[in-house]
Amino acid sequence: MSLIIPINSEFSSLAEHAYAEIKKKIFDFEMMPGELISESNLAKLVDVSRTPLRQALQQLQHGGFIKAIPKIGWQVAPLNFDKLDELYDFRILIESNAITVLCNSTQNNQIIKDLQKIWLTSKSKRNFNTVNIGVLDEQFHTSLVKASGNEEMLKTHSEITERIRIVRRLDFTSIDRINSTYDEHSKIIKAILAKKTAEAQKLLKAHIQHSKIEVRKITLGMLQEAKKIAAR
């Protein structure tokens, strides 16, 4: 006879709470790339006991957000620009496939209509808040994949989006970069609506590669400045 072990919902919720809190602190630059962290300090910081905390840390490690350092503890994952390049390239493959599906579709897609309302707007109505535009940019790219209807690609794309979020947010620190994002997104949408697959894919690839280049310019100084802003 098999033994059924009941799931402790309270323990699970505590681990989920710790996971979400620690990840938020990483994305908000309260915990910096390369920073060493101890379990005891983290337990106090997120107000959970060691057992659910360790479950959360293992999940964060699996997601690439932190690293285990033998005999020391844990470390917020340092920025690995080669790995970030690979993730950006993977995005191009997934989103290019989504564009092919959308351009070949004979149906009017509500998601694309919603994107038009956000990105095909006059300069006077553009959103120049760094945090807000970062969220809108993520939603734009995620929406393209979602509109294609491929759930497995959407799942993988969402995982990539999470892993690059910490540097992606720093890509919108200037008005020029925000305006460029609006212009490039609007051109991609127009090409999709015109069923110009090759043109839309070319525009998308150039857009993501531009972002990849900007990510390479991110320095420790920029991260420290982001941490100061987050603390205000």
Number of helices: 10
Strand line-up of the largest beta sheet: 1-3-2
Shape estimate: globular
How many discrete domains?
2
Question: Topology, pairings included?
Answer:
Layout: H1 9-27, E1 36-37, H2 39-46, H3 50-62, E2 66-69, E3 73-76, H4 81-104, H5 110-119, H6 130-148, H7 151-168, H8 175-193, H9 197-216, H10 220-231
Antiparallel strand pairs: 1-3, 2-3
Structure summary:
The protein has 232 residues and is mostly helical. It has helices at residues 9-27, 39-46, 50-62, 81-104, 110-119, 130-148, 151-168, 175-193, 197-216, 220-231; strands at 36-37, 66-69, 73-76.
Give an overview of the whole structure.
Strands 1-3-2 form a 3-stranded antiparallel β-sheet. Helix 1 crosses helix 3, helix 4 crosses helix 6 and helix 5 runs antiparallel to helix 8. With 232 residues, the protein is mainly alpha-helical. It has helices spanning 9-27, 39-46, 50-62, 81-104, 110-119, 130-148, 151-168, 175-193, 197-216, 220-231; strands spanning 36-37, 66-69, 73-76.
Task: Describe this protein with a few key phrases.
mainly alpha, 10 helices, Arc Repressor Mutant, subunit A, Four Helix Bundle (Hemerythrin (Met), subunit A), 3-stranded antiparallel β-sheet, 232 residues, 2 domains, globular, 4% strand, disordered N terminus
